[in-house]
Amino acid sequence: MRGIIGGLLIAFLVGVCNMSYAQVKMAEIQGRVLAGNQLPAESSTVVLLNYSDSSITKSTVVNKSGFFKFSNLTAGDYLLMVTKIGYNNVYSKRYKLIPGQTTTADDITITPATKQLQEVTVSGNKPPVEVQPGKIILNVQSSIIAAGSSAFDVLRQSPGVRVDNSNNISIIGRQNAMITIDGRPTNLTGEDLAAVLRSMPANTIDRIELITGGSAKYDASAGGIINIVSKKGNNVGANATVTATAGYGRYYKANAGVVFNDRTDKFNIFGNYNFAANKTFHDFTSDRTINFDGVVSDYNVDYDAVAISNSNNFGFGTDYYLTKSQTIGFFVNGSVIGSSITKNNNLKIYNQSVFDSTIVANSGVERHISRLNYNLNYNGKLDDAGKTLSANVNYNTYNRSSSEYITNNFYNADGSIYSEPLLLQNLSPSNIHIWLSKVDFTDPLSKNSKLEAGLKYSNVTSNNDLTFGPFVNGQYTSDPQISNDFIYTENVNAAYLNYEGKADKLSLEAGLRVEQTNSKGHSVTLNETVNSNYTNLFPHVLLTYAKDDKNEFSLDYNRGIQRPEYEKLNPFLNYVDLYDFTEGNPYLKPEYSNSVELSYTYNNAITATLYTNIVSDAYEFNFYEQNDTSKINVNTAKNLGRISNYGIRFFAPATFTKWWTANFNLDAAYQRYVSYPGNAYLDKGTQDIIFKTTQYFTLSSTLKAEISARYESPSFYGVNQYKSYYNMDAGISQQLFDKRGSLRLSATDIFNTLHDRSHTDYNGLNMTGTDKIESQVVRLTFTYRFGKSLKTISHHTGADEELKRITGAN
To answer: What pTM does this model have?
Structure first.
């Protein structure tokens, strides 16, 4: 069946490619430039900019009547910039050019400069949020609230993103999204991923791409892709931006850093460094009721932890321009994180509602994490027809050392000690090594069509060695029931073919990706090995119809896969307390999804999307197995069943006055969870409504403010029923020093309402819990820019587009 589907799709692509050689009409844009006295601004220069990255496409000089015209243009989104000596630069609004149509721009009026300009900035002011078919772009530097925070904080505040207190991050339903940094998968999950994201300051991030409808060029991800794109300066000469932040919630927050670049005709050297020091807390409670043999027992946990962390985040790279159209580059980035965590876990036990005893577990954790990524890349335009080739080789290392020493004290109901303290050692070092290489080729078949192809190879080795055991006879011992050395290797080989073409008002993107996965999980301690080998086809089709310059429709189909995270495959029995553990499942299978989105966009701004997403072999939520006799509860992973998501997403910007604008985002879904035969019965439907709005206020030419609010309705996820929650953030920004500097004050979760409240009643488990991490924080951030801001024409090789679209990133 897969061979038939693949053959049909390839035949379809070949047929479409042959059709693409037909003549395709080009787009045009024209307009008029006037001076302050409304006379033609003769000899002014008009520059046509790509809206997506502000790169220069063409330039021309207006005639005596003030008119200009650009012809033979590829359809797309553009800006106009007008310059003239002695006058201020002026930017137009965004224009969407349609094949075969001539767009007439609004008259552009330039005004005399009050003083000699010292610099010319080509980059336009981008909106905080941009919505495209299958993608949402968050321009982080345009957000006041994001100032001084981390990548993790920005994601928690982002429209369409869910981040729970277990560090699960998703953009499609509740499936965990693939997190990539500059196009490279992090291959991290849970607390390890959260630690890396918390070490990445927002001032080093250019944008975050939330991708729900990825083409065949993308890694096949069932839960969508979140791509964090780092800043990379392209300005001529030496330039730098320094940032310092001081914040306070329950505890202190601080960070300081610099982003810099130095560009000449042949070289661009760029980099960043940031140091952050934070103290934060994590509290949760859980009340578990067990009814066994006519005896009702309650196991109530009150847990609090305080973490102190210091992180160093850095990146350094260089590009060498072999020619105007060929570049080679090297980049290294990473982070070094040290943290100390103090945990206090109080377990109170009741039998028949009568207080029986208390177990108090106190522990200290020392953890050190280092992450390094090395990248060597080539990007080049091969001929005048526009063929491009990009190649990347990456090597990534992740090392974690973690040591925890736990003291358990046992008390009767009257406070007397009924047992000697139990001392436990928990050592859990982890090492991950990743090799990744890829080659991407683009061939423009005609003015409005192209064919893309690529190959990718990745190899991951993860080594986790858990040593857990009690203190006996003056030394710590290893408990063979829990301790384990587990080595996991995974090799993924991928190839794709993708076609993009436009004919009149219709655009088509169709592609096929094939991924072969070979994995092996080996428990050295148990001498057990689990092998898994499978090959999958992942088709993608995106059909777009531009009815006119204001109305656009798109239909997107995408198939994806989510491979089990390493920690969920690892058969460790991780200690939480004496009656609560987490455990991996080496037999866990990947889950698959089929997604369809039908979108309507009005005036490049308002977007409504109907979507459906069906997930089979779903496993990404918590699953519990409780032993009623021993009272031990184990949180594990299991391919529970099938999840069906049906919903509508709505995004709309609004302009109320010249000084007040807003964005509104709504995601309303119906979700159904059905377990497979053999698992405990589950067949439940639920609503999930998320609404977010951000209000933007321009109080003066240098003073701006933001207010953001978010609400999520009660929802059911996996086997947990969650209550509703809401939160509000705000910020204000003042530009200083002739707009080279800024001072931003932000407050997140103003009313301290952001926390998870859940109840579980499944497979004999009856548990209610609340989970709270520090979210109410006030931050003051100062930023200052040194150097010029003249941005030269970018060399558009394969790297620029690949960086935006997950492949071939530096």
So the answer is: 0.77
